[in-house]
Write a structure and sequence with these properties.
Length: 147
């Protein structure tokens, strides 16, 4: 009971869906994880899925990419600017559950292509999240503004 009180409204909604569809034996809610635990969960995954129908630039997609975990995400918001469909991950039409399932199956079936997409995603994410490079670019922007 105490744990349910701590759940957000969204967490409670997810639990209600899990019960409604009889998925209690299929879905495990991990709760809050430390960074190292999250990394290990990512690395144990065969695919990362971001099923949101509304997103900006989700950190979780970037984290999966950085770790080289194959990603499937909705083609919404800023996600298409983070990864190119078919090259660095697979994108599906938001809300299209059959297309989402097809992308997950494709990820599992096309092992060679999936590995290539994951490697390309990691390369892109490492460049995009390079702290030194981003710092230098920010300084250049400020210098340009000042002049």
């Amino acid at each position: 009971f105490k744990e349910k009180l701590r759940l957000s409204a969204y967490g409670k909604y997810l639990l209600s869906l899990i019960r409604e569809y009889g998925l209690q034996e299929k879905v495990v809610m991990l709760g809050k994880l430390e960074a190292a635990e999250m990394k290990q969960r990512f690395l144990k995954s065969s695919v990362f899925v971001c099923p949101s129908v509304l997103e900006n630039s989700p950190n979780t997609v970037g984290e999966a990419m950085l770790l080289g975990v194959p990603a499937v995400a909705a083609d919404t918001g800023g996600i298409p600017s983070m990864m190119e469909n078919g090259k660095e991950g697979l994108l599906y039409e938001p809300g299209n559950v059959k297309m989402l399932a097809g992308c997950v199956l494709r990820t599992w079936e096309e092992k060679g292509e999936t590995a290539q997409r994951a490697a390309a995603a990691r390369t892109r994410a490492l460049a995009a999240h390079d702290g030194e490079r981003n710092f230098k670019r920010l300084l250049a922007i400020y210098e340009e503004i000042v002049q």
